[in-house]
Structures are given as structure tokens and as C-alpha cells.
Amino acid sequence: MVLVLYFAKSAELTGLKSETVSFQSEVTTLQLWQELEKRHPKLSAIRQQVVLALRQEYVPVGDQQVILREGDEIAVIPPLNLAEDGSGPLDLIKLTTAKLSTDTVSDSVRCSSCGAISLFIGTTRDNFEGKRVVQLEYEAYVPMAESELKKICTEIRGKWPNIRHICIHHRLGVVPITEASVIIGISSPHRSDSLEAVRFCIDTLKATVPIWKKEIYESEEPCWKENKECLWTGSGAGAKHIDL
What we know:
Largest sheet: 5 strands, mixed
Number of strands: 16
Shape: globular
Helix content: 25-40%
Distance between the termini: 53 Å
Order of helices and strands: EHEEHEEEEEHEEEHEEEHEE
Structural class: alpha+beta
Oligomer: single chain
Strand content: 25-35%
Radius of gyration: 20 Å
């Protein structure tokens, strides 16, 4: 068993100062973080702002392998002197097979200087053109998808400079009926900017991000769906020319 210590923002998000957690003896720091986030989903709001400390030595969250001993302490270290609204505007992107949380996305973009949080939640419906849908399955080219999502965040900030925080969570794998496949949250001082930016975000995501959706039907063959926004099929609003 390992003692996990939470400080400042991480303590607020978990509602704990400490807890004991069982880990494998040899893990990466990313696996440590993923286990903590699984226990406390709200921690995803500060994923890009934290490091861990093992035996009072900083270790970044990543591929670094660590060996844990009984009685070790792991501390979750948010940014030092983190202001109420964070260290600046945040672009929070996550692709995951875990169930998405609207509260997590909303909380991650909350900001005292903003009067609006706009959300888009895309869910699995149970029908398409008279066919009974039982679930969706999503597949992604993850590194490129993350890169394209970052480009969307940059575009949003160019079009709406007053946008504060942007959070985009997309689920991969199986998504059952009524559950969310994508949640987008954007905060801004006034509602018009965040409302327009959320619409732009989901439309651009559908057009450019390499994430594929398969509809699984009750009594017919599954079908990979083509987004009408897709830019390179000709069905989108003006296909892009790509120079190789």
C-alpha cells in the first residue's frame, strides 16, 4: 500500500488530503496518474498542470518507470502559487475508453472571470433511418487526432480572443445507448463567444479529426459512418486540396 497525498487544487478536486492506494510494484508514472484519475475523475481538470513526487523527489507524469515499496508516499503537486483561475487559459484534450463526465468537463473550464460555460454533449441514439442501433464503436488515429484537436483550440482562440478555457473529451471504443461520445466545454466572459465557439469546435472536429464511428445495428450489418462535414470526401462544405 502507498500513501497518496493531495495538496491545494488536487485536494479540492478529490475532497481528500490523503488516502492509501494499492499499486503494482513496477509502474510508469502515467499509470500511477491514470489510477488516481480513475478513482477521482475530476483530477482530469489539472492533468496538464501537475507533477508527482515520489520519496520527496519530483517525477513527471509520463513513461518513466518507478519501483514502489510498501509505505512509500506519492504526492500530487499542482502548480505552485496556482491562481484561482489557473496559470492561464487552458486547452484540455482527452481521448479515452472510459465513460465521460459532464461535471468533469464543466468544472475544468469554470472560471471566476467568466459568466458563461457552453457545453456540447454528443450521445448515442437508439435509431438511424428506421434501423435499431444498439451501440456505437469509435476508433481513432490517436496522435494525429490529438494534434488536430490542438489546432482546433488554436483556431478558436484566433476567432474568439476572449475565450478562457477549452475542454474536449472524446470517448473511444464502445459507447452504449444514451452515453456521451464527445463532450466539449468552453468558458468566456459573455455567452455569445462560447456558444459560437462550441458550434465551431464540434463542426470542425467532425470535418478534420481522424476519429471513425461504426454503428452497430440490432438486425443488420454494422456500418462505418461518413460525417457529412468530412473535408476530403467531397460531401463536406468544400473539400481541401492536400499537397504531398
